[in-house]
Amino acid sequence: MYYTYILRCCDNTLYTGIALDIEKRMNEHFLQNEKCAKYTRTHKAKKLESLWISENRATASKLEYHIKHLTKKQKEEIISLKSLEVLKDKLPIENYNYSDMKLNSVN
């Protein structure tokens, strides 16, 4: 099982990524250790905004790719509606399950 996620950073920017072990990956981002993404090293991650579960890496990577190419307004829509409807013409959105998993974030 793979996860595709959107993080909100302290400067209100959004970062999208994928992970196999979501708890480990969030700790890397929030603690800004050497394994965090280059982006979250300079834009401190504040909160996990959205999380989707996929069966494999290829499916998760496709979702990540398409989210990264959306405008910030479209990403905010995905976050607020908890829906990938904006991507229905590009992806089989039924392959992704939204997760309400709550993970630690930075205040």
UniProtKB/TrEMBL annotation:
Residue ranges the record marks as coiled coil: none
Domain of life: Bacteria
Gene3D superfamilies assigned to the protein according to its UniProt record, in alphabetical order: GIY-YIG endonuclease
InterPro entries, per the entry: GIY-YIG_endonuc (IPR000305), GIY-YIG_endonuc_sf (IPR035901), UPF0213_domain (IPR050190)
GIY-YIG domain span: 1-78
Family membership noted in the UniProt record: Belongs to the UPF0213 family.
Protein's recorded name: GIY-YIG nuclease family protein
Organism: Ruminococcus intestinalis
